[in-house]
Specification:
single chain; six-stranded mixed β-sheet; Rossmann fold; alpha/beta; 2 domains; 10 strands
Length: about 270
């Protein structure tokens, strides 16, 4: 089976990184829309157009299912919209529900970070209204993290000052959980640890989205198997199970070197 995963850029590699371990039987097509990154600073109409093009491309490549590995794109591509296509399509959403359920009994607040289009969208606000019965969730847009990720800037000397400025009006000492509501944000866990004065738990929607994909595909194929232990030792990022495309064009050897650097960073972040 072949699973398509796409994002506006390199953020979705964090979903692919997890999928390679969780679904060992699958091959993958990864599509980074490098021509249009970042989605979080585009209009909803523009993003919808990009999604249409990418899904059409993946259908032509005969993928069996698609993961929209981008919270921004998912906030635009509603469930009803995704159901119009002839294959399972699973999206991402900030893991607010997971964070509230897992940390409700601990004192402290929950901070949810995402791109501006996700933070401003009705979908996230409706989700928070539904699950946050104790009013312990705060929202913040961190758009520059996407640009840092796309430029391979992981140096804490550059990332930490940005975070300090962006979060200067938030009670950082009160937070117990930090929801990474953009797949690009998974590259910066070391910098987040420098910002929060107390121990912080990181929560993302990657595993949840993949489990939903597996659940839906199990209805059609009995060969899907979840690899137990998502935190097992990380396998080599070099794999012949993935074909990569940048905005519809198969990547070059130089692009592969770049991707390998991202996967190595994710290897490191998986240990935090």
């Amino acid at each position: 089976m072949k699973i398509g995963i796409f994002d506006s850029g390199m953020g979705g590699l964090s979903v692919l990184h997890r999928a390679l371990r969780m679904i060992p039987e699958a091959d993958f097509l990864y599509y980074a829309d490098e021509e249009h990154v970042p989605y979080g600073e585009k209009t909803r109409e523009q993003v919808r157009g990009y999604i249409d093009e990418i899904i059409a491309f993946m259908i032509k490549k005969q993928v069996d299912a698609i993961v929209i590995a981008c919270n921004t794109a998912t906030s635009v591509a509603t469930k009803e919209y995704r159901s119009q296509f002839p294959l399972p399509i699973v999206g991402m959403e900030p893991a607010v529900k997971k964070a509230v359920e897992e940390y409700a009994d601990r004192p402290g607040r929950i901070l949810v970070a995402a791109t501006p289009i996700t933070i401003q969208g009705d979908k996230l606000h409706h989700l928070v209204d539904r699950v946050d019965k104790r009013d312990m969730v705060d929202l913040v847009a961190l758009p520059k993290l996407v640009r840092f990720a796309e430029q391979e800037i992981f140096d804490q000397n550059q990332v930490v000052p940005y975070l300090k400025e962006a979060l200067k009006n938030y009670p950082l000492e009160e937070y117990k959980a930090f929801v990474l509501g953009c797949t690009h944000f998974n590259y910066f866990k070391e910098s987040y640890q420098e910002i929060f004065p107390n121990k912080i738990e990181f929560v993302d929607g990657n595993e949840g989205a993949l489990r939903e994909l597996i659940r839906r595909m199990e209805k059609e194929c009995d060969t899907i198997r979840v690899k137990n232990g998502a935190n097992d030792a990380v396998k080599s990022s070099k794999t012949d199970r993935v074909t990569y495309y940048f905005s519809g064009k198969q990547i070059s050897s130089a692009d592969q070197i770049r991707i390998d650097k991202y996967m190595c960073q994710l290897d490191r972040m998986a240990l935090i």
